[in-house]
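Quick one, tokens below:
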């Protein structure tokens, strides 16, 4: 990223919300970088940030082994904002005391604002915020500071050290439950860090093209094109950077949506005139997956086989040394702890955690620091059609993660037919571009039914519809009953082997968007 781009560093102490903090900062058109809590003040200073944010975290600051930051961060001369654990760590580091609270404060809380300027400019005197803490500040450090806000349970809901741009807040402004959280983060970025908001997708494209050219040089790149938003945008971005030195390889792994192979070949090979190699490896993948039910093993088999197919397909491409992927920020965040932070792995993705160590290609992942809505905007600016840019996300391992248990061609065909009906009805209802993701899931359970005068013993299809802004959290969508009824009726009548349809109403967290 160009040094002229304003940036704010987020130090990650293992919070589930660290990535949301980064996302909210980016909404202010300020680039955000997530670094591990162990980053030194010198490392941070080298990035020339306009400010630093200390995230929340699951531990107590006084616990043995609790993550600490370099105390010199508070002497860098840039504003620092501590959120929840970040506030407590700041107080603890500078000589105050943090202790277990008499009662835990979790959920929506009314915050009383004492100082309606600076961090709280434009914020109401009383506002709803999201709290999530069991510890609290019980003694202030021997440094003058002002209390900016409080609540019934938290005397030091927000503080500022006098004469220094050091701020701490006990609540989480990054989550949607804090009704004026975006305003507070915007105030930190604009009023306090003096950012003008010069990070845009146009500036990202300009810098990304330079970075790709510098990294690739005169070598050849191959890209795994799935037809989804991420790989399509990655292809368009790399094509702009290096032109015909990019070859897109489209692998039919037998886990695609219905008629996907034809759609991708028509769109990219014939319309966009990109170099496209089509490989039908469906039988090969399904043979390797035969009888495999464990989700992580399925993911790794798909990832390993994917790379092997690429090795073979790339043999005819001289000097192909880079494998490009449409990996996005949520893929990286959920698969491995970024830069060694303490967050636990949720699941692996075949394009991150499943790549074998012996893979001979170097990775090129130009979208790996973008959230989904940012990827879509890049696609628009690169001239991709809206039906591609706004296509709902599709998982890297394909239908394997929408089919618990072992997959077969027959059951996958059942899932494909059901999924096509779900998407078709969502589009007819005018909801496709309004909902983050809508799809069918094959449930490997047989139930008794009656069709005509005959008893049936067939499979179950689950319908999943969720809303999200970045894939990190999601809520189920209350689809109209008549729409659900049409989907159910069509699936049972048109898809052979199904006699029951259910609706998944699970949020993320605790569930994930996909079933595996």
């Amino acid at each position: 990223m160009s040094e002229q781009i304003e940036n704010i560093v987020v130090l990650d102490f293992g919070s589930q919300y660290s990535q949301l903090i980064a996302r909210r900062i980016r909404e202010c058109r300020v680039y955000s970088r997530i670094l591990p809590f162990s980053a030194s003040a010198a490392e941070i200073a080298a990035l020339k940030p306009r400010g630093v944010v200390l995230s929340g975290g699951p531990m107590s600051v006084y616990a043995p082994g609790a993550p600490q930051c370099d105390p010199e961060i508070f002497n860098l001369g840039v504003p620092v904002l501590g959120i929840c654990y970040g506030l407590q760590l700041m107080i603890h580091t500078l000589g105050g005391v943090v202790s277990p609270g008499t009662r835990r404060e979790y959920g929506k809380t009314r915050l009383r604002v004492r100082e309606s300027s600076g961090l709280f400019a434009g914020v109401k005197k009383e506002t709803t915020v999201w709290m999530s803490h069991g510890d609290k500040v019980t003694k202030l450090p021997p440094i003058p500071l002002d209390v900016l806000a409080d609540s019934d349970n938290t005397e030091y809901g927000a503080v500022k050290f006098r004469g220094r741009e050091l701020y701490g807040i006990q609540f989480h402004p990054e989550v949607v439950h804090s009704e004026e959280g975006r305003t507070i983060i915007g105030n930190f970025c604009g009023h306090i860090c003096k950012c003008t908001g010069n990070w845009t997708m146009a500036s990202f494209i300009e810098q990304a093209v330079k970075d790709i050219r510098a990294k690739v040089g005169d070598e050849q790149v191959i890209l795994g094109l799935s037809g989804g938003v991420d790989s399509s945008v990655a292809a368009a971005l790399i094509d702009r950077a290096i032109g015909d030195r990019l070859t897109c390889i489209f692998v039919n792994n037998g886990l695609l949506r219905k008629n996907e192979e034809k759609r991708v070949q028509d769109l990219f090979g014939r319309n966009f005139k990109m170099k496209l190699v089509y490989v039908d490896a469906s039988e090969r993948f399904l043979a390797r997956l035969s009888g495999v039910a464990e989700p992580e093993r399925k993911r790794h088999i798909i990832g390993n086989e994917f790379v092997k197919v690429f090795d073979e397909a790339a043999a005819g491409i001289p000097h192909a040394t880079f494998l490009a992927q449409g990996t996005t920020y949520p893929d990286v965040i959920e698969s491995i702890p970024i830069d060694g932070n303490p967050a636990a792995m949720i699941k692996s993705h075949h394009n991150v955690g499943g790549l074998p160590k012996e893979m001979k290609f170097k990775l090129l992942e130009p979208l790996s620091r973008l959230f989904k809505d940012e990827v879509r905007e890049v696609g628009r600016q690169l001239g991709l059609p809206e039906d591609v840019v706004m296509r709902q996300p599709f998982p890297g391992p394909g239908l394997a993660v929408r089919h618990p248990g072992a997959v077969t061609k027959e059951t996958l065909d059942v899932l494909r037919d059901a999924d096509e009906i779900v998407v078709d009805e969502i589009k007819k209802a005018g909801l496709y571009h309004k909902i983050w993701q809508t799809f069918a899931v094959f449930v490997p359970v047989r139930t008794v039914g009656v069709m005509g005068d005959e008893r049936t013993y067939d499979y179950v299809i689950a319908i999943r519809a969720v809303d999200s802004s970045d894939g990190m959290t999601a809520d189920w969508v209350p689809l109209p009953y008549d729409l659900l009824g049409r989907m159910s009726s069509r699936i049972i009548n048109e898809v052979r082997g199904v006699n029951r349809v259910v609706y998944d109403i699970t949020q993320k967290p605790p569930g994930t968007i996909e079933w595996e």
